[in-house]
């Protein structure tokens, strides 16, 4: 076993410890078909929880989209995303001569499944920020790929932005019904609908907390 494999197992173990096991597949079963999972983003553990919730045989072909500026700055961050999780890096700064979605398109052409956090950054509010447009463009180009919304609950309290040491607390990942781009659907409408599909998966107890504080 390589060091990267061992790190993967260790992180999956930690994720299971703090989440009390698997995800809740409410709107779709885990399945070997090409998918783009999209979720709210509050913590580095978000990706690990989704990954740990997948059946082991689907993990190798399911890849996180990672911000290039953040995850290639520093040897450990680069190693863990490249070697352990086979991340697809995306540039968050726009340049004129390059399509930021190109690496994602290539991965999808390859048949890989992706996990995207369409807010593009971690937020510490209860509800997700508006979604960036990448998800819409990918939905247009890859109509055959299933778009699966997911809500990750409570992780911000395990490892909020700025914290290094995780605090054990129960977390859940809930997967919803696939969302499809409507024929001729407007970009803004689709992105708002996709975000609403994620928010709708928030467990009731946690909705109460969000609205209370
Ligand atoms: C227990 C020790 C925890 C170790 C954590 C290992 C984490 C591996 C995480 C791989 C994550 C890949 C997905 C990242 C998605 C992404 O790239 O979102 C942007 C944020 O990331 C950083 O940007 P920001 O929130 O703006 O600081």
UniProtKB/TrEMBL annotation:
A Pfam family of this chain: Acyltransferase
UniProt keyword annotations, A-Z: Acyltransferase, Transferase
Phospholipid/glycerol acyltransferase domain segment(s): 35-155
InterPro entries: Plipid/glycerol_acylTrfase
GO MF annotation, one: 1-acylglycerol-3-phosphate O-acyltransferase activity
One Gene Ontology term from the biological process aspect of the record: phosphatidic acid biosynthetic process
PANTHER family reported in the protein's UniProt record: 1-ACYL-SN-GLYCEROL-3-PHOSPHATE ACYLTRANSFERASE
Name of the protein in its database record: 1-acyl-sn-glycerol-3-phosphate acyltransferase
Natural source organism: Pseudaquabacterium pictum
């Amino acid at each position: 076993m390589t060091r990267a494999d061992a790190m993967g197992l260790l992180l999956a173990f930690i994720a299971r410890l703090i989440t009390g096991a698997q995800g809740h597949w409410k709107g779709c079963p885990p399945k070997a078909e090409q998918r783009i999972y999209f979720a709210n983003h509050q913590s580095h553990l978000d990706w690990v929880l989704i990954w740990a919730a997948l059946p082991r045989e689907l993990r190798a072909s399911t890849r996180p989209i990672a911000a290039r500026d953040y995850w290639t700055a520093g040897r450990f961050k680069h190693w863990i995303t490249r070697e352990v999780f086979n991340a697809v890096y995306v540039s968050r700064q726009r340049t004129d001569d390059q399509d930021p979605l190109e690496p994602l398109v290539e991965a999808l052409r390859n048949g890989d499944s992706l996990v995207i956090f369409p807010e593009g950054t971690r937020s510490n509010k209860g509800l997700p920020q508006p979604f960036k447009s990448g998800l819409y463009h990918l939905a247009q180009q890859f109509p055959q790929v299933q778009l699966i919304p997911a809500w990750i609950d409570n992780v911000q309290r395990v490892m909020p932005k700025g914290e290094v040491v995780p605090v054990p607390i129960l977390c859940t990942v809930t997967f919803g019904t696939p969302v499809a781009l409507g024929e001729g659907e407007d970009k803004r409408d689709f992105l708002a609908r996709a975000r609403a599909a994620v928010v709708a998966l928030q467990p009731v107890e946690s909705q109460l907390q969000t609205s209370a504080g």
